[in-house]
Here is the input.
Amino acid sequence: MITIKTPDEIQKMRQAGQLVASILGMLEKKVAPGVSTGELNARAEEDCRKHGAIPVFKNYPHPYRGRPFPGAICASVNEEVVHGIPGEKKLREGDIISIDFGVILNGYAGDSALTIAVGEADPRVLKLIKVTEESLMKGIEQAHAGKRLGAISHAIQSYAESHGYSVVRDFVGHGIGKEMHEDPPVPNYGSSNRGPVLKTGMTLAIEPMLNMGSDHIIVEADQWTVKTRDGKPSAHFEHTIVIGATGPEILTLR
Ligand code: MF3
Ligand code: CO
Here is the structure.
């Protein structure tokens, strides 16, 4: 069931979104060669709890039979697409890292992700990152009441593919509210005349994952880390948005 949020609920989601944005902004500045993904994770969890919020990824149940997610952030490096487990791995010059983070604050969720390069990286990888962020913005631009959800999906896919990248299909964005994952699923592909009609007060987490090579993915033995089957790089951006009376508002804007 897709829920329409009241102005009071949207205000709470704005606060959750702004906390996520500020923690992601802080993490972005810490990314450097030699820093481990576990250190980023520890800082995120500490800052989150300091603000009285719950890091919602931590202990999040596995979709099938696996163990709950062990981190507060997902840290996905290079060919890792999403759901990388933070740990000892140290970042190296030229890596790219997707940092995904979500909280529950005063009963409402915020969820956002960004991808950045560690030091200087291959210009082709920087282009992938740029186009992935732009594809998210193209999708958000479509989030107007009266349009169908497919308009978002289609805008992301056509922008990504026009630049020669593939769109991951096995993972999608989602509705968000009291729960991090609510209806509807928000695919990053498909035709614009599909899906529910968007309404003022709907809140969505839109999160394109673009691959330099094929869209095929595999899940590692750790049960969580998703990576490209061909080993080529992947980038990921996510924002939580609300469909306002006059258009989309990004709740996790940094
Ligand atoms: N932004 C991701 C999502 O919407 C992160 C979830 S990681 C998990 O699925 F561990 F919490 F599942
Ligand atoms: Co999400």
